[in-house]
Amino acid sequence: MDNNVFPPSDNQPSGFDMLAAAIRYDSADIRAYGNVLVKTITDLFPASMLEIESSQSLKDKLKGSLGVVKSVKIRFDDLVLSLAIENSGPRPYVIKEVGKVIISKKEVSMSEWTENLHEALDAAAIKNAENADALRKLLGGDS
């Protein structure tokens, strides 16, 4: 007998019921975490790097609120990391662009999306530090 499957009884749900309940529970977590991630992105990243698609009610507009966010894109030069928000949770995409022309768009796992985000953030931080250093030197600041 498989230890991972519970035999059905009058008082105990079947293995199928338990798996379905676990999937439903995890799906709710995924939606919640996705919404928190989108909120964090919109709060932390500069507006110049973001493209946000949302649906706003009149009440949202009057409050200056984004409303319900449908998708968020983070732009790093020719790399765009996109999260489309759906009932099932976030759908992550990695998009390659050249001059705003999409070269490729690939749906990826959340772990691959976060790896791309970390790599892009590291590269952007290095580039920004180098640019700031060059400008300091040009303007006669510390070397």
Helix content: 40-55%
What's the assembly state of these chains? Answer: single chain
Poorly predicted spans:
none
- Beta-strand portion reads 25-35%
Bulk shape:
extended
- The averaged pLDDT comes out at 83
The whole-angstrom Rg is 22 Å
Q: What is the topology, as strand order, of the major beta sheet?
A: 1-2-3-4-5
**String of helices and strands:** HEHEEEEH
Largest sheet data: 5 strands, antiparallel
Q: Which SSEs are present, and which pair or pack?
A:
Layout: H1 15-44, E1 50-55, H2 58-63, E2 68-76, E3 79-86, E4 89-98, E5 101-107, H3 110-138
Antiparallel strand pairs: 1-2, 2-3, 3-4, 4-5
Characterise the protein shown here.
The protein has three helices and five strands; from the N terminus they run αβαββββα. The model has no long low-confidence stretch (mean pLDDT 83). It has a domain at 15-108. 9% of the residues are buried. It has helices spanning 15-44, 58-63, 110-138, and strands at 50-55, 68-76, 79-86, 89-98, 101-107. A hairpin with a 2-residue loop joins strand 4 (89-98) and strand 5 (101-107). It is extended and about 75 Å long. The longest helix is centred in the N-terminal third of the chain and has 30 residues, at 15-44. The chain has 143 residues and is of the alpha+beta class. A five-stranded antiparallel beta sheet has the order 1-2-3-4-5. The chain starts with 14 loop residues before the first helix and ends in a 5-residue tail after the last helix.
